[in-house]
Amino acid sequence: MLLKRLKLGLIHVAVAMTLVPINSTLNRVMIKELGIAATVVAILASLPYFFAPLQVAIGSYSDRHPILGFRRTPYILLGLLLCVTGLVVSPEIAFLMANNAVIGLLAAGLAFGAWGMGYNLSSVSYLALASELSGGEGRGKTIATMWFMMIVSIILTAIGISRMVEPYTPDALQHAFWMVGLAALVIGLIGLVGLEKRSNAEGFSAAENYTFQEMTAAILKSRQVTLFFWYLTLLLAAILGQDVLLEPFAAEAFKMTVQQTTRITSIWGTAVLLMILVAGALERRAPRKLVAQIGNIAALGGFLTIVASGFVASTSVFYTGVLLLGAGTGLATVANLALMFDLTLPGYAGLFIGAWGVSNALSRLTGSLMAGIVRDLATGITQNAVTGYLVVFGIEAAMLAIAIGMLSKIDIAAFHEQVEIPSALERAALVD
């Protein structure tokens, strides 16, 4: 199983590698060097999350429509190819936008749309495959392995890009994106080949006898599914919403230089990596729900500590908050994703993973928009930029507190009792 976990991790790494250049390097080039409106850039970079509702349809379709005996592999491959294609053409599209706004914007919609569609197509498919291959006992370790490899790859990809584009030229940017794209494709293919066993169509679950509408109706009967959906949305919106504000806050509150604020990411990332390893080690030693709750509480403590650092103007208190936030994020990521896999039914993994993917995307959108809008409003009202950041961090702490209360009400056993396969009568009613 270790080899399968590593191969799943390679697929996860490949898809994540295509996100780094667009979400970091290209964003800056488009806004600063090319003078493209930040709103346009933000919308293009957010296309994967706008497309996220399609994950439910994609997951359900792949559950019921194997290709050449494979339920996941063809969809992962197609998604990866779309991601890589969108990545390698994106610099050229950005330069086109700067020279011809109308044509460039239309081309950007296609290029970034391909990237966003590929992200959703591949991610829901490989997460469903991870759920199916791991089994109930090994899901935590699989998730820990995949996310550990992903975070390391993000750090290494960012370092590699920064070196390849120094000094910056358009040619250097395009070369860097091609190198990352080709590396992602090779890594993804290595992970994909031989991972999923080919099966006869007859061997697939009875899920293929049900339409997407029927299975969605079955899911909506479960209060536990609905509760977990909104729990994940609230939790991730709080944890991910700080991503765009933490470094600007440090610069504003503590007058940190660019080099100093850059270290914040490495400190946070190190804490995340260590706690991912700890969460993987705790897989069979502690209940997943308990580990998730400890992570949630640690993240809450991190936000409160960061808020306190703004009031006392202490960098040591701030770094303590960053460490707590990173540690909580690492524990919560592994444990909550393992819980996500528990909240699936055999044969319906694609559909359920798609639903959780929608929750993740919704949380990223709401978290980022909330953070930016509230920060600007609070700053405008108080005429104090630091206060604007602290208001956002305080709201995110409150969101985490509510999520902690919601998690205590989630019951895996109740989920399996509540989700029922539609009866023949119910299916006939749905068709009508």
Describe this structure in words.
- With 432 residues, the protein is mostly helical.
- It contains 17 helices and no strands.
- It has two domains: 1-200, Growth Hormone, Chain: A; 207-432, Up-down Bundle (Growth Hormone, Chain: A).
- It is globular.
How confident is the prediction overall: mean pLDDT?
Answer: 79
Q: Please state the structural category.
A: mainly alpha
Helix content: over 70%
Number of domains: 2
Shape: globular
Secondary-structure topology with pairs:
Elements: H1 2-33, H2 38-45, H3 47-50, H4 54-64, H5 73-99, H6 101-164, H7 170-192, H8 212-220, H9 223-241, H10 246-254, H11 258-281, H12 288-312, H13 315-342, H14 349-382, H15 385-407, H16 412-418, H17 424-431
Characteristics:
432 residues; mainly alpha; Growth Hormone, Chain: A; 2 domains; 82% helix
